[in-house]
Task: structure prediction
Amino acid sequence: MLVIENLTKIYDNGFKALDNLSLEIPDGQFVAIIGLSGSGKSTLLRCINRLVDPTEGRIIWNGIDITAASDDELRQIRRRIGMIFQQFNLVKRASVMTNVLAGRLGYINPLYSFVNYFPRSERERAIAALQRVGIEDKAFNRASALSGGQQQRVGIARMLMQEPEMMLADEPVASLDPATSHSVMKYLQLLNDEDGITILCSLHFLSLARAYSDRVIALKDGKLEFDGLPQDIDDDRFRQIYGEDAVQVEIN
Amino acid sequence: MNKTPSGSQAALRRLIIVIGAVAALVIFSYGWTVTDIDLAVPQQPVRQQNVGNALRELLSPNVFTQDYDIQTTTTQFAIDCVEDPAAAEPAASDQPYIVVTPACGSSGEIVTVEGYNFYPDSLARINWIATDGDRRIRQTRETNADNFVTHDNGTFSVQIEVPRIRGSAGEIHTVEAQGAFPQGSPHISNTTTTVLEKMVETIFLALIATVISIPPAAALSFFAARNLMRPVRIPLGNLLISIVLLPIGWLVGSALLGQLGLLALRLTNGEGFAGTAVIFVFGFASVASARRLRSSDEASSGRLRGIVNSVIVAVAIVLITGVLGGLGQLLDRTINDGILGYVATFFGALGDLAELMLVAVGGLVGAFTLSSIGGTLTRDALKHISVAFSHISGAVLGALAGAIVLGVTAVVGGVAAWLGLLTPVIAASLAAPILPMIYRRLAGGSPIPGRSERSVVAALSLAGSIIVFALTFSVLSVGRALIEGTLPSQAAALSIGDVIITQYVGRAMLIGAAIGGIAGALAGTKSNFPIGDALYTATRTILNALRSIEPLIMGIVFVIWVGIGPFAGVLALALHSIASLGKLYSEQIESIDSGPIEALQSTGANRLQTIVYAVVPQIIPPYISFTMYRWDINVRMSTIIGFVGGGGIGFLLQQQINLLRYRDAGVAVLAIAIVVSVLDYASAAIRERYT
Result:
């Protein structure tokens, strides 16, 4: 259970990205977060694993106060929260294998990192993760040599190395074409179904949210605009979230 | 004239442009005068002739040379002869011979000397040998020079004057012609050989200086990268405990770890082979315990693991330094000949360096290990103390840490008068946050200050800094030191064992304790200190200061320290390259893609792991490229570092110029031009591959 209480984030330049937001997300839910650009979707996700430090409010996950964690504790928490990104955030010059293994860094002895060593069991785990996303044959290619969809799958494999209980996906398909988007979303759905990983996924397209999520949270100017089932968003709700002039675009 | 407001604005802008142009003209004219530009000087005939000669010689470099055999042939000449001697026509042969017409004459007469069978287009001269046997060079009337050049068929015909020698009438004199005959084929001159030797020295000087500078520059570049350092903040309490533990760690580390390292060095350098086994057992034990820790890390707490890890790393660092140093010395002693001899000597030197540095390395490692352990152990305790106690402990720890920091800067400041400024500057920067903290405490205020509040805070911190600067400046009488160049007195205020604290250092420590105590009490041990920002600013300041000193000036200092020669040049170029590469490297770190860093942080990787896996892969290509560029620059610099005694080709070039041997200097200039352009091309080609 993830509990967000009165979360507010004001950036140094004075921009208020989140405004007194409160939420409860039970374990195992697939939550889509929608809203216009700048509505606070990315900030919300980054506050949960403290890539961004919230200004006020608390985030409590399974009884642990993430907002009060020290550096050591935070690393322990982050190990169990996976994250994938719009720009994939792979080290492009490194091999796919190295990128995937990097997801395990929170678990292995930091001394090994000096000499770039990973135990055999971790290498096997990495191959298994790549098999799961169907690109084990690319393991020793450079990450930059892969297509966008394949790079995002490397991102998912890297996240799988963490054996996460929760996953944050920051617009994971915004840089991908429609067909690839569906393939990546299906992997997320698979992880949600098979591994019971709680998924918080920010999306641009309502159609994707309808197709894959259990619950939709809409943000507008850092405030909660809608929280409910995907099918409950009708045209009026849609215009409330995206503004009067918005027109729904389907992605198939 | 336009009367609209926009028109008057345009007019004003035009007026400003005109004023600016006039000001620029005045500035430029002043510069013209200051730089002594005088267009008449280059046109003076004497100077034009001088520069012509110098350029001619420079552009005729003495690269090749030819050995000559001087062949001599003579004929008779009668002075004031009674009867005209018959022109003795020598039998035609391939030997050189000369004919003087007329073969008789009086002093001051002009005679023609014709030579045959000389070497074509080579130098020859005419000597006059009177009965006294003295050889007098006769200059030819055409050129007024000692030497002349033979025709392309090996003949010559020159006119000389019969010398006026008192009482020579009736005597028979000898006319001698000396001709140069090339011996063997043309070959490379001695100058060229010397220049080549020095050029090799120069290239290696640049190479060694560049290689030495890479590790420190790479290490410093991480501290000088804003994007990496900006987010690093640690609780003030941890920082203060770490600072307080630094000197204790230094003492313990230099005693225990330093001795351990020296033991390892002694055992491996051949004075006891059995010792090597002991070291290997140590090594295996530490690796094995590291492995076991990994397998049991879920059970044991991460904190204990961290402490054991840092102790293992500390011991490993001194042991590895000691073992490698010892092996180097052993190698040096066993191998003396050939290419391996060079390698062995190099490793031996590294071993000696390790032996010298081990106590300091042990001290540093011990200081950082103990302070990080202290920080880790007290983290929980500091987190759970009450607010009131956090301010009390802040005051105590702050006073101790402040005293240590200002004590150290005062010791540095006691070395030279102007370094005395360091203490007031550091004291002022420590005191800067005090007044803003008091203001915030009184005014309350939101977590995000508005613009007006920010300017109030800035004004307050500036005011506080100035007050503390002035106070420290006067208490330590830095002003007197600045004017008279005197150093603070060494009068002891307190002595603990061997450690003597002078009154000067003691006063600085008291000031530090006061500032640190007040700041610590106000902030409390729970507040976050922007340690990253502080390290960033300090590193950047040091790098910029070092970079602003020209390598030639550093060269002068190092020549005083280690004597004239390439070693001084290496040190000067290395020091400057550290500063320069450190800046270039850190700019590369600042321009990397932050995405992978964010991704690795989100996996729970620690800071070091994030750097190794997200930052290092991205910066390797630009680092290679900038290192090549720096090597290129160092080769250029090393060609002139010799002018101040730093070795290499510059030293030779300076000697040749001072001796006015421009043809030899031309060889050096040519060699520099070739090497620099080849390296320029090579480094550009390599850099292109990596960017």
Observations:
- The CA atoms of residues 417 and 481 of chain B lie 5 Å apart.
